[in-house]
Amino acid sequence: MSTSSPVDPSPATPGAPVRVALVDDQQLVRAGFRMVIDSQPDLTVVAEAGDGEEALRVLDAQATRGGVDVVLMDVRMPRLDGLAATARLTAASVADPGRAVPRVIVLTTFDLDEYVLAAIRAGASGFLLKDAPPEEMLAAIRTVHAGDAVIAPSSTRRLLEHLVTVLPDDRPDDGAAAQARAALAALTDREREVLVLMARGRSNTEIGRDLFVAEATVKTHVGRILAKLGARDRVQAVVTAYETGLVHPGQ
C-alpha cells in the first residue's frame, strides 16, 4: 500500500494494453477520463456505465470479449452506488475463485474517511480523489493492475489511524477474526516483519532497504503473505494486520 503519490506513471510492463472500464453517472467526467486514458499506449477504455447496476451488466458482457482489468468506480450514483457495486463485483471472486474479476479503484470528490473505509470493506484495491492529477490516476491504474494497492495520499494517514478503532467494532463476529488470527499465525517471523512494513506504507524497494534484502526477495515474501492471508492485494493484507492487532496506530 502506498502512502505517497504512486510511482512513475510510465508503462510498467510490455504487452497488451490494460483494459479499463469507467463507471460514473456524469458523461462529461467519463469523456474526460477516456481522453486521458486512451492517450496512453498501454491503456485503453473498453467499457463505460452510468450507474452500478449498468456497470455489473456491462462488465459481465465484457467478460466474453476479453474482460476488464481495472474499473474506475464513482461512489455516488443512482440505482446502485459504487460501493455496493464494488462489493457485488468482488464477491463474485469469492463465490467463483476461477473467475477473473477486475480490480477496482474507487473515485470520489469527497475526501472522507468513511468512503475510504467503505471502499476497502467492499474489496476495492484503490481509492483516489477525482481532482487528483491525471498522471496520478494513470499511475494508480498501472499500479493496481500490477497487483499493488493505491490509496490517496491525503487519506492514508487518517485511514490507518482510524482502522484499528473502526473496523473491528462494527463488523459482526462471524468467525472471520479468528480465521484472520490463524492465518497470521501461519506467517514466518520474516513475513510478519514484511507485513508490518507494508502496513507502515513501505514500498517493496523500501522494505528491501530496511531489511537488507533484494527487492525480488521482498516480492516473494509479499506473494506468500497474500496467499496465506487469502488477500487479493496489499491493502487487504494491511487491513488484516490492523484488525488482528499486529500493527497499531502511531507505530
From TrEMBL:
One GO MF term attached to the UniProt entry: DNA binding
Superkingdom of source: Bacteria
Response regulatory domain residues: 19-145
Pfam family, one: GerE
Entries under InterPro entries matching the protein: CheY-like_superfamily, NreC/VraR/RcsB-like_REC, Sig_transdc_resp-reg_C-effctor, Sig_transdc_resp-reg_receiver, Tscrpt_reg_LuxR_C, WalR-like
BP GO annotations: phosphorelay signal transduction system; regulation of DNA-templated transcription
CDD domains: LuxR_C_like, REC_NarL-like
Record has Protease as a keyword: no
Residues in HTH luxR-type domain copies: 180-245
Modified residues (4-aspartylphosphate): D74
Gene3D superfamilies registered for this protein in UniProt: 3.40.50.2300
Keywords of the record: DNA-binding, Phosphoprotein, Transcription, Transcription regulation
Residues in the signal sequence: none
Protein name: DNA-binding response regulator
Organism of derivation: Cellulomonas aerilata
Lineage: Bacteria, Bacillati, Actinomycetota, Actinomycetes, Micrococcales
